[in-house]
Amino acid sequence: MSKGRVLVVDDEAEVRKSVRLILSKAGYDVNEAEDGEAGVRLLAGGIAADAIICDLDMPKIHGIEAIPNFLYLYPSCPIIILSGSVTLESATRRFQPGVLSNKPGVVEFLSKPIDQERLLGAVKKAVNKGGSRDEAPA
Description:
Layout: E1 5-9, H1 13-25, E2 29-33, H2 36-44, E3 51-54, H3 63-73, E4 79-83, H4 88-94, E5 106-111, H5 116-129
Parallel strand pairs: 1-2, 1-3, 3-4, 4-5
Helix pairs in contact: 2-3
């Protein structure tokens, strides 16, 4: 039985692969998207997501632009930012109340390279907090 479904949105194939392997081994189902546009497309297509892991600096649609779209499609889906291109402090400032129309969503900021223990802890917390599967678009 799966612990939950996680969407990993990152333009680096090796990062997606590493996250998928870590999460799959821990019992999660994982979907992958190579950028924000692909992530939005997957969610709009109706895939289930209990949590989303998203990079910030990607081609086509950056994480900063994709996250409000994710929250529009799955309003209570927890989002974990995993990024190596910005400091966590500047990322935190970007997601202060009001930036995302006062919608909750970003629950954790993790930096690259991936720390397996922190990743698993963040995903467990996010999935337990989530419940977004029931809110998928019809």
